[in-house]
Specification:
This protein is α+β, with helices and mostly antiparallel strands and 630 residues long. Helices cover 50% and strands 21% of the residues. The longest helix is centred in the middle third of the chain and has 68 residues.
Amino acid sequence: MIVSFLAVIIICGLVATIVGIRLIATGIIMQAQAKVEIDMNSARHIYQDKVKNIKEIVRFTAVRFFIKDAILKNDVETLARELEDIRKMESLDILTLTDKSGRVIVRARNPSIYGDSQIHDDLVGWVLSKKEIIAATVIVPREELIKEGDVLADRAYLKFIHTPKAKPRLETEETSGMMIKAAAPVFHDGNLIGVLYGGDLLNRDYEIVDSVKETVYRGLKYKGKDIGSSTIFQWDLRISTNVERENGSRAIGTRVSQEVYEQVLVKGLSWIDRAFVVNHWYIAAYEPIRDINNEIVGILYVGILEDKYTDMRKRAFALFIGITLAGIITATIVSYFLANGVLKPVEQLVFASQQWAAGELDYRVKITPKDEIGELGKTFNLMASLLKERDEKLKDYTEQQIIKSERLATLGHLAAGVAHEINNPLGAVLMYVHLALEDLESQDILRENLNKAVKEVTRCRDIVKGLLDFARQTEPRFEERDLNEILERTLSLVENQSLFQNVKITKTISPSLPKVMMDASQIQQVFTNIIINAAESMEGKGELNIATRVNSEKESVEIEYKDTGCGIPRENLKRLFDPFFTTKEIGSGTGLGLSVSYGIITRHKGAIEVKSEPGNGATFIIRLPLKRKE
């Protein structure tokens, strides 16, 4: 019982621990994912605010009077000086003005390069065609960066650094740059006279990522590491990040993992899950950055160090294991005392049952607890009393049956001996009486007395024959026979007798009755006895219904005899098959017919059932098994 208790506690504890840990781990991961999703929203707003800020700077600059006036007067020196002051004041990397056809008039950062066409630039082309301001993230080729100065081209240039789990690429370096850029039309009297564009190069510019880190994570650390980080990718290359390498430097030039690459850059879907970032696992969020043509040009990333949540799961696991172990120890102690309280009375019950099995039915259980065990003890004692009572009744009944069997056996031997001894003298007497009858005249007065003697001697011979049938108990010779055929043969033998002249016999024969293993002559004897008894009970006038069928369980065939005779009193039903029991007048029967019939059916492993009420006739049902056990 202790082992059973412990097994239940251990199994339940383990299941609860596993389920609890899984639920907590899932909850922790879901909480982390929800947190990083909110962080991504904040990072996106900061990034979009940067785009809006550059857009506003360019828009306000494009409507300033000096630009319109300088364009109309072709005053390049004033334009270069004023635009450079604005560029520096607004911390822009580029600020360039073109004419209405898209040719560069002046570059604030590098005025020496001018006259080239920017019509191929997506933003400039948009403004020239739509005459509206536009801002977006764009990829700027190295040639265009060089026009703005070597400094920007050098900032954009990055060599790839080997990154675990990154997607293999043939390229080893990146020369183009990723820029947040805005372009606005310059109007004079409603006519387009130029396009002003400006922007910030994101390569090695940490303003956005550090702003995200400070705003969202506020410099929190876990075990000496920054708990959160942010990155801007140019395609799959980190160009602006505060994720650190092992040496503590920013992980510029490292690349995103392959699974994120496939999800975000190829499929264009967001990623919110754990991801390997440079050299640590993070709960990370990635979403694509798209250009003016809705093509993916980069990725915006925020992430939380997974170590914190891994340790939370470990602590939860340790807590659950501790609770489970404490529960097991407590359950062991409690189950020990409970088991002792239950097992001692049970041991007494086991000992009592052993005593009763050995025949000591006077032994009784001592009842102490007033609970279910106590009730069980009372039941055991009651059962012992009932067993003893039944045992005594069974002994009495067995003794009676043994005495009865011995009497029947003695009677059988006696009957056989008497029958053999009497049969020969009776035969001689009957022969001499017949000889005497032959010698007498038909009118002789002695003839009537001799006929009476013949009748009485014949009755004695029938009694002797019944005694012999009862004593022999001949074992049946089984063979497969048709019951309907035997019934028809029996009826053909008896229905012509004078006793059946006024008896109507109605037959309900089942044509599909299966054949049965039987001794045909013995079964015919049984049928004859029952049919004659039925006719005698009706005093030769009435109706006898005979039916054959297979019983509902398909295990045996039934032959039913139902007469309209006087019926059988209830007190006689129990003695009906006893030898020499008869209700007929003295000299009208031996009382052996039904007893012999009962013995025959019993030896066929069958049964005879009798139903009767005085005045309502009697019904005899004979059942013979379809499958006889050898």
